[in-house]
């Protein structure tokens, strides 16, 4: 029986390995992590991440051929194939701080593999890493090899949160990069055989190591670039009276462009886009390519601009001050169908409003008060350093309350901001919400969720990103 071990039981390691176990009953899969609480959660009925369809997959194979454990050394020792799916955060200090990825977790995983291995291994980069990481990992393993042979493969993951199980069941492609030596090709074949249990062969792409590593960064940069492009246009739509959803529909009908990833929003979030673009920028700079670095940097600048623009619109619409005013925040996760808040635009928007002394009442169907309070006091980039290693701050932000009831969040509020596109926000009783709010009552829709005309009929003053402005808002241009 082939044995697989995955180091890192997070958003990628957990779902990916659960699907491998489900689709390959002849393979034994162990997912290991240094976080005791995370592993306990994987072994309980309350999984550590919310992901539609994940519970059923885990239930079907846990205890049969899928195991979650903190005994990292045992499972690494026994495995034929080791996936490394640890976090690769942006460095917070030192050389390349704010751009370069921090490979501390990766390196410690590699050193541990070298320490405990007694047989040949295939080591698979599942984490997103800079180009040439495989070379560094090879060096660590080879210098400590004790005669053991390692083959390094790059097998980046393309799943998106909220649709992870669907994406894993039916991937657009699986990418495997390896050395062009006979041993490298044999390792590629061994990993191909795993995916071939359910992925059609023509969707399994094989490349050299560096192409696979770079393709992952490139794919995320392209996706994020589309969002920044449409978000940049949303500002122009507001200035001209064009409607961004009509523009993106018309543009996306061109089959060369396509309709996906053209939804204007308050900004993209998530653990990947910003981090991976910064990583790409850093690699370009290190390779003496400042023009290329600046090109990709602009994608992040537009994203920051979009979040600032939203805050400015809220403040300027409400007579240039939100001081002491209750503002309801609907949605805190970085997108719907996940409880993940990493790099969510809600953090920057809330911090912006708090900076203007607003009182926030936050509702999200999946995010806990603890998480929200932690996010609002955490420093930039600290979020991706495992939570169990972070000192918890005892103070909470006093101007912030968190509730599980959307109507309580909006009661007596002066305005409400929709920051995540949860489906339930489409069907709220907006008349009831309006009746219980202060007047004039404002809605700031950062996700094109509400029916603008209906809400205006009720009496709300509505701002929806990229849509023609309410006459009220036209008279109060957004602050510079
Ligand atoms: P995560 O933070 O959810 O999980 C990483 C886990 O690794 C944590 O539980 C941490 O405790 C564990 N860990 C760290 N060092 C360890 C060590 N030495 N030994 C054992 N466990 C260790 O991160 P994630 O979202 O799963 O992302 C993992 C990687 O996959 C990152 O490189 C990320 O860029 C990439 N990725 C993420 C996504 C996504 O949607 N989240 C998608 C594609 C790729
Ligand atoms: C992304 C990539 O899609 C995935 O392939 C990669 O493996 C990890 O990074 P993820 O961050 O989980 O996945 O979610 P994604 O659906 O890409 O959304 C990212 C952000 O962009 C979210 O905040 C989302 O709301 C936003 N977004 C997405 C838009 O603002 N507009 C869009 O049209 C699409």
Automatic annotation (TrEMBL):
Indicate the segments annotated as coiled coil, or none if absent.
none
> Which BP terms from GO are recorded?
glycosaminoglycan biosynthetic process; UDP-glucuronate biosynthetic process
Q: Where is the catalytic site?
A: 272 (nucleophile)
Key word Acyltransferase present: no
Is NAD included in the keywords of this UniProt record?
yes
- Pathway where it operates: Nucleotide-sugar biosynthesis; UDP-alpha-D-glucuronate biosynthesis; UDP-alpha-D-glucuronate from UDP-alpha-D-glucose: step 1/1
Domain called UDP-glucose/GDP-mannose dehydrogenase C-terminal: residue spans: 328-452
Question: Which keywords appear in this protein's UniProt record, sorted alphabetically?
Answer: NAD, Oxidoreductase
Q: Which domain of life is it from?
A: Eukaryota
Q: Which SUPFAM superfamilies match?
A: 6-phosphogluconate dehydrogenase C-terminal domain-like, NAD(P)-binding Rossmann-fold domains, UDP-glucose/GDP-mannose dehydrogenase C-terminal domain
EC code(s) of this entry? 1.1.1.22
One Gene Ontology MF term: UDP-glucose 6-dehydrogenase activity
**InterPro entries with a match to the protein in the record:** 6-PGluconate_DH-like_C_sf, NAD(P)-bd_dom_sf, UDP-Glc/GDP-Man, UDP-Glc/GDP-Man_DH_C, UDP-Glc/GDP-Man_DH_C_sf, UDP-Glc/GDP-Man_DH_dimer, UDP-Glc/GDP-Man_DH_N, UDPglc_DH_euk
| Stored Pfam families | UDPG_MGDP_dh, UDPG_MGDP_dh_C, UDPG_MGDP_dh_N
- Please tell me where NAD(+) binds in this chain: 8-13, 33, 38, 86-90, 127-128, 161, 272-275, 342
Show the catalytic activity. UDP-alpha-D-glucose + 2 NAD(+) + H2O = UDP-alpha-D-glucuronate + 2 NADH + 3 H(+)
First-level EC class: oxidoreductase
Any one GO CC term of the record: nucleus
NCBIfam families in the record: NDP-sugDHase (TIGR03026)
Report the family membership.
Answer: Belongs to the UDP-glucose/GDP-mannose dehydrogenase family.
PANTHER family tied to this protein: UDP-GLUCOSE 6-DEHYDROGENASE (PTHR11374:SF3), UDP-GLUCOSE DEHYDROGENASE/UDP-MANNAC DEHYDROGENASE (PTHR11374)
Please identify the protein, giving its name as recorded. Answer: UDP-glucose 6-dehydrogenase
Species annotation: Durio zibethinus (Durian)
**Top-level taxonomy:** Eukaryota, Viridiplantae, Streptophyta, Embryophyta, Tracheophyta
């Amino acid at each position: 029986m082939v044995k697989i071990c995955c180091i890192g039981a997070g958003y990628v390691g957990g779902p990916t390995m659960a699907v491998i176990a489900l689709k390959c009953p002849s393979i034994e899969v162990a997912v290991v992590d240094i976080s005791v609480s995370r592993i306990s959660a994987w072994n309980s009925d309350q999984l550590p991440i919310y992901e539609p369809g994940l519970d059923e997959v885990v239930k079907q194979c846990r205890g049969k051929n899928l195991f979650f454990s903190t005994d990292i050394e045992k499972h690494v020792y026994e495995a034929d194939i080791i996936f490394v799916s640890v976090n690769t955060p942006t460095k917070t200090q030192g050389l390349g701080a704010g751009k370069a990825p921090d490979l501390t977790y990766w390196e410690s995983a590699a050193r541990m593999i070298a320490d405990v291995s007694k047989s040949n291994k295939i080591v698979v980069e599942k984490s997103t890493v800079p180009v040439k990481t495989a070379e560094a990992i090879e060096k660590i393993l080879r210098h400590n090899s004790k005669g053991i042979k390692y083959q390094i493969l790059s097998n980046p993951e393309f799943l998106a949160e909220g649709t992870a199980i669907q994406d894993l069941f039916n991937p657009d492609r699986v990418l495997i990069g390896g050395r062009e030596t006979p041993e490298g090709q044999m390792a590629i074949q061994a990993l191909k055989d795993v995916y071939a249990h359910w992925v059609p062969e023509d969707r399994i792409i094989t490349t050299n190591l560096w192409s696979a590593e770079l393709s992952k960064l490139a794919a995320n940069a392209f996706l994020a670039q589309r969002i920044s492009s449409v978000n940049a246009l949303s500002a122009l739509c507001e200035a001209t009276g064009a409607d961004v959803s009509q523009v993106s529909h018309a543009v996306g009908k061109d089959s060369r462009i396509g309709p996906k990833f053209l939804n204007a929003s308050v900004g993209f979030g998530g653990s990947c886009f910003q981090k991976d673009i910064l990583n790409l920028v850093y690699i370009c700079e290190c390779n003496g390519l400042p023009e290329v670095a600046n090109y990709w940097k602009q994608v992040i600048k537009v994203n920051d601009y979009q979040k600032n623009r939203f805050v400015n619109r809220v403040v300027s619409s409400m007579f240039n001050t939100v001081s002491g005013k209750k503002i309801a925040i609907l949605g805190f996760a970085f997108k719907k169908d996940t409880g993940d808040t990493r790099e969510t635009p809600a953090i920057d928007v809330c911090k912006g409003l708090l900076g203007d002394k607003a009182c926030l009442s936050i509702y999200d169907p999946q995010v806990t008060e603890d998480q929200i309070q932690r996010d609002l006091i955490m420093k930039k980039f600290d979020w991706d350093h495992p939570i169990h290693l972070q000192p918890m701050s005892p103070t909470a932000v006093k101007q912030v309350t968190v509730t599980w009831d959307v109507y309580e969040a909006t009661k007596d509020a002066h305005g409400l901001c929709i920051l995540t596109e949860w489906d339930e926000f489409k069907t709220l009783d907006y008349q009831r919400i309006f009746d219980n709010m202060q007047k004039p009552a404002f809605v700031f829709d950062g996700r094109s969720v509400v029916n603008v005309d209906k809400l205006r009929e009720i009496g709300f003053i509505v701002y929806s990103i990229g849509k023609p402005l309410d006459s009220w808002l036209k008279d109060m241009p957004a602050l510079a």
